[in-house]
Amino acid sequence: MVNELPGTLPRRPVRPTRRGRLVLLIGAVLVLALAVAVLVPLLTRRPVAERARPLVIPEGWRTSQVYAAVDRTLAISPGTTEKTAATADLPLPAEAKGNHEGYLFPATYPITSHTTPQSLLRYMVDTAVKRFGTDHITAGAQRHGVTVYQTVTIASIVQAEADTESDMGKVARVIYNRLDRGMPLQMDSALNYALNRSTLDTTTSDTKIDSPYNIYEHQGLPPTPIGNPGEQAMTAAITPMPGPWLYFVTVAPGDTRFTADYAEQQRNVEEFNRNRRSASGG
Prior knowledge:
Blueprint: H1 18-44, E1 53-56, H2 63-74, H3 80-87, E2 108-111, H4 117-132, H5 135-143, H6 148-161, H7 168-180, H8 188-194, H9 231-238, E3 247-252, E4 255-259, H10 262-280
């Protein structure tokens, strides 16, 4: 029991009026509604989708260039993608013998935080196998008496040698014409591949190097593609332009001369050399 002071009246508990109870009830409802309005979006909000970054692989890039680009894009140590490729189980044709050259399809690939070298390589190879495995490419290879893998090799040479897309069909025809006649292909692009360089200047000593990619010395196609061809080069490889040409040289940008006459080829080559000397100030 609590003793009250003498002369004081007992305190009565304060009770809200009916109007006061109504105000309190309305206030409680408003607070609850506000809480629901804030919490429901927080609880139901979906995570924002990650925006992918593009990795562009141009037509004609060699596998070594693709590996380096993947390393840079994924911000991983140089050589990581190449090491991954050496052990990755990818659906390459048996003729490739594990070599990815020619089967890292040129395209624009989406890169996210979840992308790995292996997942990206698989994406590229799967794309190449799908594109190169169509019925019309298989039929085109059979018409020319070559395999699909050899067609990819031809397309890679076409990609490297043609100055313009419109020249691709003629370059492909030169390749087939020389193969049919048992002539060495004598393409500088294969020498450049063997020497891991890109140049328009080929010396006599270059044509004597000991390499299966030296198709000055060896007849037939090189053992693998020399780059990763795009669809236009593959189309040229299965549907070369009709013509008798055995030689060609790009004497100036946009001016590639095709001929079946060796003497004419020599004159064109001399014009090419003059243009090179003039450009270098020699």
